[in-house]
Design a protein that fits this description.
mainly alpha, globular
């Protein structure tokens, strides 16, 4: 992730409640909410040893973190994401578009 320092600070940085996950998605949503552009590339390649710190602490630790992160994420973003998804779905229905449709 590459973010200008000013944008990072204006967005409030990483939310303190997350533990080993989801803070990056939370930050991107805050940047979008603040009018910033978020770009991702399906061509980028990254090798990442997923969760070695958590794995060393055990499965229960990983489960607890993921459950807490998921809860915090949906408490923070659930209502807004549901509105956006519902709005997108209604636009797709009105235009006749459907998931997986080929033109």
């Amino acid at each position: 992730m590459l973010v200008e320092r000013e944008a990072f600070e204006t967005a409030g940085g990483f939310a303190p409640g997350y533990r080993y996950g989801s803070e990056d998605v939370d930050l991107c949503l805050k940047l979008l909410r603040g009018g910033r552009r978020v770009v991702s590339s399906g061509k980028a390649v990254l090798l990442h040893d997923e969760s070695p710190s958590q794995k060393a602490a055990g499965r229960k630790f990983m489960h607890t973190n993921r459950t807490g992160n998921r809860r915090l994420f949906w408490e923070s973003w659930g209502p807004e994401l549901r509105r956006r998804c519902a709005s997108t779905a209604s636009v797709e229905r009105a235009s006749g578009a459907r998931r997986g449709a080929r033109t």
